[in-house]
Amino acid sequence: SPRSQQNPTLVVLLPTQSRTRQGTDLK
Q1: What is the pTM for the complete model shown?
Q2: What residue spans carry the region label Disordered (predicted)?
Q3: Cβ–Cβ < 8 Å for 15, 22
């Protein structure tokens, strides 16, 4: 997809933030 090629950082940061939030909630 062209979007992921234009902003690869956004694609990586989005899932990373969701994982961090879940980990914080579990703690």
Answers
A1: 0.21
A2: 1-27
A3: no
